[in-house]
Amino acid sequence: MSNPQFYLYRASGEQGDILNISHKPELDLNFYAKTYGFTSLEILSPKMPVAKALAMLSNSSFKVNYPPSALRPNKSPYAFKPGTCLTAENIKSAKVEINLPGRFPGPGEYEVSRVHQFLAGRILLWEEIEDRVDYGSQLALEDPLASVSGPASGLLDHRWPLLDILQVLYLTGSARLMPGISYTANGGLVCNRCGQDKAIIRVGCPDCGEECYQCEECLSMGASRTCTPLWAFPGDCAQVVVGKHASAENHLELEKVTQDASEITIAGPGKLIRAQLSFPLTQAQRAAAKQVLETVVSEQGLRVLVWAACGAGKTEVSFGAIAYTLRKGGKVLFAIPRRDVVRELEPRLKQAFPDIKIISLYGGSEDKYVEGELVLATTHQVIRYCRNFDLVILDEVDAFPYRDSAMLHFAVERARRPEGKLVLMTATPEEKLLQEARSVGGGTVLVTIPARHHGFPLPEPEIVVDKKIRVPRAGSISLPKQVLELIYSSVVADGCQLFLFVPQVALAQRVAEYLREMPAAEPYGSEWSAEPYGSEWSAEPYRQGWSSEPYRLDWERGIHFVHARDQHRDRKIQAFKDRKFPVLVSTSIMERGITVSRCNVLVLMANRDQVFDAGTLVQMAGRAGRTTDYPEGRVWFVGDGISPAMKIAVQKIREMNTEAERRGYLVR
Fold first, then answer.
1. Three-state DSSP state, 584
2. Does 242 score more than 80 pLDDT?
3. pTM for the full model?
4. Could you tell me the end-to-end alpha-carbon distance of the chain, in angstroms, rounded to an integer?
5. Pairing of strands 211-215, 40-43
6. Cα–Cα dist 155/136, whole Å
7. Burial 207-231, CB ≥16 within 10 A → b, else e
């Protein structure tokens, strides 16, 4: 079905006039006749796309006297063209009189309320609403109680088109109608779906048959155009906001159940929620979890910044706040910029909250239309929510693509209810965010987790300067003896795997190939796969399927590379985690989201600050020393100079270690 179009009209009665838009004016007249006793309606324009109709509504020069109890239409704040006004002179030819009060019954209350319930908390394009309601109708048909609780046709009584029901929701103020793309007062364009005004282009539209404007920024989520109606159904319209009635009785209780399992139990009145963990929280985690929960319960402060050392276990610190919100009947969003982390975190959350409906949303997810109490989603998927969540937890707030995307910031903020709480979690917060959290009255509460679970300090990077290190423009590459000795010592002397980070995609392959061809260096033995691992580095029977072009993988040498465009990336990463080879040369794609039990880190050309900023360097260093069997780890920042980012990264890691020692979290 193509996008619907709308008339501009004026409804009149003894109490006053109402100016609005509708795809079916007689439906609106019937609503106004029942509500205000109106008796007539004038159509003031031909049918037109929604952006133009709302722009004309906003710019109309008609003086309209609204009845005292009338809900004014939610006019678009954006104008069609500067100075363009709808006047009595230029619309006479389109003027039509309609007098049908009482003769045109509208959709029943059951259909309207059920559709509203199914769409609440969402902001959706017209075609998305059609798909979602159709899915809901199929669910209702499968419900054995459907014939008792309502029409057997599912969500809808098919005497009334879906568009009629949406119009009634719009007239009652339960939904807001907007165009996907609006005209601004200064003649510009803005996407109401993602909030940005940059990547908007003119296209030949297959729906309206005319030239339209389309947003390229959120195109992957469906086309938002000037002719595309966009409906918002704020989720806080009919539900109590969690946190309003918090009392001092609500508290976090951490109880050790067995030697290797814990529970987070939320006490107090209401539904009892337990978060089941497979390990006990550390002292640092317990203190942070208590502070996060107290902030969520409190009416003061809407944001919490959790600044955690890499590998400190920040995810579990939010479980108390999640349990509290769920117990109060609220909804929780756990948003993460990257799809792979969503898929990795899903089983952990389901294990922790086995009695809670949890859904995961990412590109290709099967949960697209499913409702959940706890929603785990990539930040891109959040774009379809509107004031739906009482608690929003945003993990890896510093990570791409969220960090640099105004669209995703806009979407996450819109998904939160006006009085809902926001928890930001990161190991590398931006300085602006830290300053706000540290300032008095800044509106953000700072919570730190400075120590890892094993109680050892974070490995502090050693800065190695060698003037012979250069970024070659083309051809072969060579590494100085000092760098080779660090690599050899990590793999052979320390018996550790090694993350070797480089600043460019092309360098990943060139460095790996160069190292494969290097002869073994004394005194480290004759092969890269020397003791203590011996044949453990061999990839058999993994060779088959890995040695395809263009990678020419050499398993005996045990050195491989990975980058974002690598089609074998997932298999390489898994093989590295399974200890099938010792050295992985990588771009910054591996800076987070992976734990290898016994590994060191070397950042080559670390002073290339246009690629390696301080946050990236901290994350890379955070790959080392994460596990109990090798908590020390070793990290080298290697370059032909020292960048400010290198100094800041080392300083941040030292700050965490100093704080951990001051608070008594370190075991040595």
1. strand
2. no
3. 0.81
4. 68
5. unpaired
6. 6
7. bbeeebbbbebbeebbbbbbbbbbb
